[in-house]
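Students often ask why we bother predicting the structure of a whole assembly rather than each chain alone. The short answer is interfaces. A chain on its own may look different once its partners are present, and contacts between molecules only exist in the joint model. In this exercise we take two input lines together and write out one structure for the complete complex. Read the inputs first and try to guess which parts will touch.
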Amino acid sequence: ELKVEQNPLFLSMQEGKNYTIYCNYSTTSDRLYWYRQDPGKSLESLFVLLSNGAVKQEGRLMASLDTKARLSTLHITAAVHDLSATYFCAVTETSGSRLTFGEGTQLTVNP
Amino acid sequence: NAGVTQTPKFRILKIGQSMTLQCAQDMNHNYMYWYRQDPGMGLKLIYYSVGAGITDKGEVPNGYNVSRSTTEDFPLRLELAAPSQTSVYFCASSQGLAGRAAKNIQYFGAGTRLSVL
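Now the answer. The structure tokens for the assembled complex follow.
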């Protein structure tokens, strides 16, 4: 059974600081996704990572994937208040289509 | 530019009632999914479909049924609602796995907030 663990689950940051969210998964996978969810809203796709060493960047967010360590990171650079949201990683088993989600990291960026 | 449309947005059910949550997508996606999200938790897969006429169970299928008679629609049926089914339900769709490099990004609807009292 595929398990996905995120840490931390809660993160309170000051504006302008950097931080990293970690996502570990338990079995081999060929697709890892990061989603954002604002309170009371739906999920928005941020990144999909398909191969070992893949790195994707959008604005202040950068995601990377290490398939050998079964680890993905979401790095936040110079955080701003607008980044406050819950971030989920989700993983599919190799050649599968079913997503298994982590519990999410609730990020709060304080002025 | 509708994407994935879910109805209703909110619903309150009494224990033992039944209802159908509607989901429609206009992106010609092959794959569709139903998830539930309990407060402060991640999403759990209820059922999914890889094409019209094909459905399969996810992680938490008990108490639910689905059908997929068209590519566009994927309704979720709750029979004999129970308080444990109080949750937010999300429908999603994706293009599918057409090749090893297929991203197969899932696009989500706005959700249905269901309370069973």
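Check your guess against this: The CA atoms of residues 41 and 96 of chain A lie 27 Å apart.
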